[in-house]
Design brief:
It contains eleven helices and five strands. It is of the alpha/beta class and 268 residues long. It has one domain: 3-Layer(aba) Sandwich (Rossmann fold). Helix 1 crosses helix 4, helix 1 runs antiparallel to helix 11 and helix 6 packs parallel to helix 7.
Length: 268
């Protein structure tokens, strides 16, 4: 079933819960989680077909978070939509928690464990191919980081998708131009991204990755080709002192920083 939830409200909930999880769990990658909050909010509130009380619902759309280090954003969505409990969320960062620091399939609602970058898209392509062979109508959606495009396995999957006309897959690239130590451009340039995807036989759109209406439009637009959405985002989006700051790939907010961040998110 398609969900119809207020995506703006959900994006704030994702940011608030993610901030709390990372702060209390003394964990990393809050910048990456905040970067994709809007994409996840639109996907889960207005696009994906799923049942939170039946995570293996056969006609569900499949979603894979390839940038698995941004796990708290996905865990937050699953919590607010009823897949997992408050106790699950509160366990993050503790010994024996099933909410690992890279997204885990042991968590209800997670399709595939990720974290080794460059693997999410190839697995998603396999799922899309399976749907085609079985003549299923469900679609596959993937979020990956722009730095992941430096992985060779990604380009094999991109070629495979167009060769087999997998128009049932949509890839969203979280294009914030920051990776672990410096910018993507400084590390290993992947530009021009759009023309590369088009030359590989994909449909490609470049949009503001924080604009919910633009996201909704592109996530619901398909043709005979696989679809790539280059979502221009800001790492740490929604918290002024985290935005475009590479250190928030690793740091966790102190109690005072958490309160400042939560206030900004609530009042945005």
């Amino acid at each position: 079933m398609k969900q119809r939830i207020n995506s703006i409200k959900l994006s704030k909930q994702i940011r608030e819960t993610s901030l709390r999880m990372v702060s209390y769990g003394k964990a990393s990658h809050i910048g990456s989680a905040l970067s994709i909050a809007d994409v996840l909010a639109v996907l889960y509130s207005r696009v994906l077909s799923f049942k939170s009380n039946d995570s293996k619902f056969s006609q569900r759309d499949r979603f894979i978070l390839s940038k698995g280090h941004a796990c708290v954003a996905l865990y937050s969505v699953l919590y607010h939509l009823g897949f997992i409990s408050k106790d699950d969320i509160d366990s993050y960062g503790r010994d024996f928690s099933k909410l690992s620091s890279h997204v885990s399939h042991k968590v209800n609602g997670v399709e595939f464990s990720t974290g080794a970058l460059g693997h999410g898209l190839p697995v998603a392509v396999g799922k899309a191919m399976s749907a085609k062979i079985q003549k299923k109508t469900w679609r596959v959606y993937v979020i990956m980081g722009d730095g992941e495009l430096q992985e060779g396995s990604v380009w094999e999957a991109i070629m495979f998708s167009s060769h087999h006309k997998l128009n049932n897959i949509t890839l969203v690239i979280d294009a914030n131009n920051l990776q672990s130590l410096k910018t993507v451009d400084e590390t290993l340039s992947i530009n021009p991204i759009a023309s590369k995807f088009k030359s590989f036989g994909w449909e490609c759109a470049e949009i503001d990755g924080h604009d919910h209406e633009m996201l909704f439009k592109e996530l619901n637009s398909f043709n005979e080709k696989p679809k790539c959405i280059i979502a221009k985002t800001i790492k740490g989006k929604g918290v002024s002192f985290m935005e475009n700051k590479i250190e928030w790939h690793y740091k966790f907010p102190s109690n005072d920083e958490l309160e400042r961040a939560l206030s900004e998110v609530r009042n945005a």
